[in-house]
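Supplementary Methods, section 5.1.

A reviewer requested that the exact input to the structure prediction be made available. We therefore reproduce it here, unchanged from the version used in the analyses.
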Amino acid sequence: MRVVIQRVSEASVTVNESITGSINQGLLVLMGIEDADTIEDIEWTVGKIVNLRIFNDENDVMNRSVLDIGGQILLVSQFTLHASTKKGNRPSYIKASKPEIAIPMYEKMIATLAIALGKPIQTGIFGADMKVRLLNDGPVTITIDSKNKE
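The structure derived from this sequence is encoded token-by-token as follows.
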């Protein structure tokens, strides 16, 4: 599982000119799922997301998590996070899960994030043509791969 986490002042996702999810201060999380991902990958990744200390404290040091600040999370599925650019110039998405595997994992991620955050999270629509707007705060952008726990 790969995620790109962006600290935002605000973010939203629109499908067919209708906003499906919108947050103020918090995290925009782009999520890519592969067939090898398990519930353990979700749990590990969620723990990282909600506990990352990337928000400033009173001394202007990144020392607070989204939990600490009472922030929000917007989760957007993005299969292109598993793009392979090894050969040629057209990315291959062979590692990205098909909907029959990815949708249940995405839904489990939503539920697990909501429990860990202690409130509902906002989302896009799986597989839709989404327009994502964000005001990246910092900018702070972090990538996490549950198969490469650095």
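The chain has one domain: 2-144. These observations are discussed further in the main text.
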